[in-house]
Amino acid sequence: MSGNSLGLLFTVTSFGESHGAGIGCIVDGCPPGMDISVEDIQLELDRRKPGTSRHVTQRKEPDTVEILSGIYEGKTTGTPIALLIRNQDQRSQDYGKIVETFRPGHADYTYWHKYGIRDPRGGGRSSARETAVRVAAGAIAKKWLKEKFGIVIRGYMSKLGEIDIPFQSWDHVSENAFFAPNNDIVPQLEDYMDAIRKERDSVGAQISVVAENVPVGWGEPVYDRLDAEIAYAMMNINAVKGVEIGAGFDSIAQRGSVHCDELTPKGFATNHAGGILGGISTGQDITVNLAVKPTSSIAQERQSIDKNGNPVMMATTGRHDPCVGIRATPIAEAMLALVLIDHALRHRAQCGDVVVNTPRIPGKIA
Amino acid sequence: MSGNSLGLLFTVTSFGESHGAGIGCIVDGCPPGMDISVEDIQLELDRRKPGTSRHVTQRKEPDTVEILSGIYEGKTTGTPIALLIRNQDQRSQDYGKIVETFRPGHADYTYWHKYGIRDPRGGGRSSARETAVRVAAGAIAKKWLKEKFGIVIRGYMSKLGEIDIPFQSWDHVSENAFFAPNNDIVPQLEDYMDAIRKERDSVGAQISVVAENVPVGWGEPVYDRLDAEIAYAMMNINAVKGVEIGAGFDSIAQRGSVHCDELTPKGFATNHAGGILGGISTGQDITVNLAVKPTSSIAQERQSIDKNGNPVMMATTGRHDPCVGIRATPIAEAMLALVLIDHALRHRAQCGDVVVNTPRIPGKIA
Amino acid sequence: MSGNSLGLLFTVTSFGESHGAGIGCIVDGCPPGMDISVEDIQLELDRRKPGTSRHVTQRKEPDTVEILSGIYEGKTTGTPIALLIRNQDQRSQDYGKIVETFRPGHADYTYWHKYGIRDPRGGGRSSARETAVRVAAGAIAKKWLKEKFGIVIRGYMSKLGEIDIPFQSWDHVSENAFFAPNNDIVPQLEDYMDAIRKERDSVGAQISVVAENVPVGWGEPVYDRLDAEIAYAMMNINAVKGVEIGAGFDSIAQRGSVHCDELTPKGFATNHAGGILGGISTGQDITVNLAVKPTSSIAQERQSIDKNGNPVMMATTGRHDPCVGIRATPIAEAMLALVLIDHALRHRAQCGDVVVNTPRIPGKIA
Amino acid sequence: MSGNSLGLLFTVTSFGESHGAGIGCIVDGCPPGMDISVEDIQLELDRRKPGTSRHVTQRKEPDTVEILSGIYEGKTTGTPIALLIRNQDQRSQDYGKIVETFRPGHADYTYWHKYGIRDPRGGGRSSARETAVRVAAGAIAKKWLKEKFGIVIRGYMSKLGEIDIPFQSWDHVSENAFFAPNNDIVPQLEDYMDAIRKERDSVGAQISVVAENVPVGWGEPVYDRLDAEIAYAMMNINAVKGVEIGAGFDSIAQRGSVHCDELTPKGFATNHAGGILGGISTGQDITVNLAVKPTSSIAQERQSIDKNGNPVMMATTGRHDPCVGIRATPIAEAMLALVLIDHALRHRAQCGDVVVNTPRIPGKIA
């Protein structure tokens, strides 16, 4: 309960540092009897892994996962599933100079004051490398949600820096290095990123995630609202500075007569709510946006201080993502899956008996 | 753990419905030996209570709190503090017509499908009346944080519908009905709200909350990051659709060279991070914005369905806030206080021994 | 999470002191749609309440419960059920002399050192008066377990001091002041207790509890084993010093060939396991014994110290149970019910889908 | 939260099966800055490991632990410590015959009905092999408790079957294969065990554990009492059927005037309480006994059923401990250490400020 576990009933407990022996997690609470293979997990890991284009970090990590427990003859047994990803491409020497200083925008200063000690190799525990673990655990969650409820969870990049990315097709998302749902805009994105890299700078992004086919009734009423749990999960991703559900910040200037979604026998007329009312899913698409800040590691010289409080100038060289948002899409999908499976289980714990005779209206008007 | 408890070590467990016997909570984990009186709590409740201006609901609730336990001779004893607020102004008859139908934008439809039963009186458990409880519990948290660390937590309305409210002074916040930090703009806000009420419509708002003097080092590293816990807490407030920390959604279009706050011996040069790096407090002001949607209860006729799935037209009459954001400021302050005290306790549990010899740089440049 | 909540999914959070305004709890996670009335709860409270015979404390407490929330039109709604029992017969003056001293065998010394402050009125939070709350919450749990699974939870006194109480009939338990399953032995028990009271002394007891008709498969495999959770629950009852399941301490001298229960197509041949194997219920009766220590409050003079560490002699006068075990039976039943309902919900959360084609063998051989 | 995690603030989450790839755990919440090495952990593992005498299982497992994370330059960093023990001596062929049948006294039947699937290789997750993980985690807890508070946690075998083992000296415990605090009795124990093995039977044992130098004030007041948490922890050890604290079951026949420990300026006069009053430590030795049942795996033929409910006769051959109690001592010590460290952290979370001017009286009279 010291900040390395996620979920009440489908619980992921994570470990590992960027340049230690490896990273991994224990997934506890997975329903028994589901087929799961290394390939199921590896597929998702490969979507997040570094080194796949010039727009992301050039660190070479195959991110090969080993399943240590919890699976018997290809099926989950209901006991903990331990996953291990060994680190391969540690270059501790890259980080020697930062031992005595605090990189601006990073957790160096805060870890140091919290713990009085820190593993400086690649940011140690604070590195976004840890997010691979969530993608691995999320793959299991996604599979169960898909098989049992037909839930589909997909994300895409909706903004890169100043550039809005109009949605064209889900099919495009896997066809470019940006998770952009729009192949036409890709050359513009490439030029934009090339320029930023040339300036030795970085930039932010917005990721959007959607869950389709979520049943009505998931989420808790007061404090573990589904939207609150999603906000929590997303804000737990490195570099995320904002989360919104449905109309989000646009709600501020909306009138009630516009925002509030009418119900009709054929379904909800609109989805400003983003699929959640009173903290509980409505059966509509759950829609989430997250704001990802620009990478703090840039090669420009910046003011900082050392451990003695003396001023220093430092530039962060080494291998870094010029836009951490680019690899954030599979992570955000995983986080949404982890929240949903936890609430699926919580729902059937308390309300497993409930049979509602009222017709469930479709989430979307056909 | 069914969504009515908040916090790991300073835990608030809430109960009550809008038109039942009352609402209240148990605060568990409060450090012993702190002076606390009914007045300390009542003061905060009075800031949130209904009926204080024409811009909020006209329901008359004195919101008088009774302390049932946990205090001996005016001091906390370390045992659970139970708080009870009896409901006074129940008008169940106002709600008779909504028993068979689902109010658009409300939790009626989702509660019904989750539980198979719902208390329709004033929205039952889903009513924002429950937030009084958090304000009461938050008063205890605020007091401890203030006395022990000098932490000051204050909020204000930063946007009302389309109107931006420029910050002038904290002193103004308590001087108008909107929690606006700007008395000059109040006549404009009043006209705006009067027009919206006349149109039988409602509107959203943005609330900003700031915590000053938070020590460096609070928050957990991976999943219970301080910003994630704040996002969770805020999104658990009724009608909140978005949360951002520091630069928030503006980070998307920022460059790393701009966003990432430099450190100098005199302090951080800027605060785009909003006081949190790597999930852990930096010692700077923690700054949070939340988007509050327009009230769903409006007196205009809207499409909905009844329990049999038949179309109905319904207008929500009765006593409602035309902008729920107006009373949200003390609630948001309370939620931030509750998150901070929980992490204060978590910090000293794990790291109580830590002595860091490095100078702590001030949050702001003097 | 500061020791006043019990259960992960059916969670009871308790508050209150012996001589404060009252005691009570919030029951969170109760499945929706169950009929529950004040009478259902009062019935159990009346079994535990003081003043019903000369063998228990003469404090007069009607222990009248008020339901503050969570019930609508006589049914649980799935939202928190708050229960309040106002204290009636506070006699704080009885306790004036113990403010500065520590009663031997009580929590005075430990509370003082833990919290630096304590409510000395009747032991404050450490009083067994708090157990009324568990009996109230347990009544709800018992009802659900009975209605949904036919589970019957019953307890009785199996030893009073040196006297073994042979089991004759469940019917006898409600027919005497001792919860003895044996009316013949009651005169002997009465004489025994009268003598102890005359000696101004107290004595211990053993309580046995049985749960019948528990399905196979409840309990967790490694750390939240059903037997571990039962041991935890029982040891949380004031004055309990030991817990055993099935053969318990007799297992030490048993051979494996004797202890280990054979399975036959007609059922288990024996039940040394007490209905739990590998932490999971077998479908047999769950059988538990608990050792209750003698009341520490006795009217004999005893050595103690005051807050300054000076020696004092003190006798605890006032109204006390000469054998706290006598009223422990309904408490132990309640605790077992609370553990079982929590695991019922946990089981269906993770394994709700499981269909086992293997015949479930009966718990007992017909 | 599905039964594989222990502790609120010092949390051990365990994984692994008897004949899978390995076993291990994540220790979360360890205070930062403590020296810890593989040797510190290995030392404790070696005390529990199999194959060290003819009186325990002949399975050959070196139980070599690898630290995967959480340690930097030999010190804990406050981030999760992941431990991995690869299985070496898997002999899955030994277990082929039990796939279709349920071993009496084992968890086969209950796992099958709970999960609908089970890993039959050596009992899978239900194997006591998992306890190695606790010993490893417990080594970290023990070290911190020792260094910070001087706490010493030691256990011994106090009964083997019908044989009482009188306490002679702590020094003897490490000098014989039984953890007996009495070398003189060892030949008798050896003969006893040899006879039982010859009869192809097994026998139970009693283990006693003592924690010295625990400060006053650890433990929670109502539900997470220190004794309740100890009972929970111990009953979570495979084969444990009973737990008692202090006088335990002997309290039943004790008078209050005997049981209740007097306080004097020089210390407590006696320790029937076992170092805990009102759920909170007194500063005296914490004393715990646990009853361990006889091993269920015996080579005698026993009645059972197969998955179709048909009767079968089965004898469990293979490599088994004839008395699982023999290797239970280090496990019980580890469990006590894990409970104590968790409450040490919980104590300083809530009461870190408390300064009590009253003299703390010694646990023992000098």
Automatic annotation (TrEMBL), chains A, B, C, D:
Where do the annotations place NADP(+) binding?
48, 54
- Organism equals Chitinibacter bivalviorum
Name the domain of life: Bacteria
Q: Which reaction does it catalyse?
A: 5-O-(1-carboxyvinyl)-3-phosphoshikimate = chorismate + phosphate
Protein's UniProt name:
Chorismate synthase
Q: In which pathway does it act?
A: Metabolic intermediate biosynthesis; chorismate biosynthesis; chorismate from D-erythrose 4-phosphate and phosphoenolpyruvate: step 7/7
> How many cofactors are bound and how?
Reduced FMN (FMNH(2)).
GO CC, one annotated term: cytosol
Q: What is its EC number?
A: 4.2.3.5
What job does the chain carry out?
This reaction introduces a second double bond into the aromatic ring system.
Q: How does it assemble?
A: Homotetramer.
Query: Which NCBIfam families does the UniProt entry name for this protein?
Result: aroC, PRK05382.1
> Short name of one Pfam family for this protein?
Chorismate_synt
Q: Which cofactor does it need?
A: FMNH2
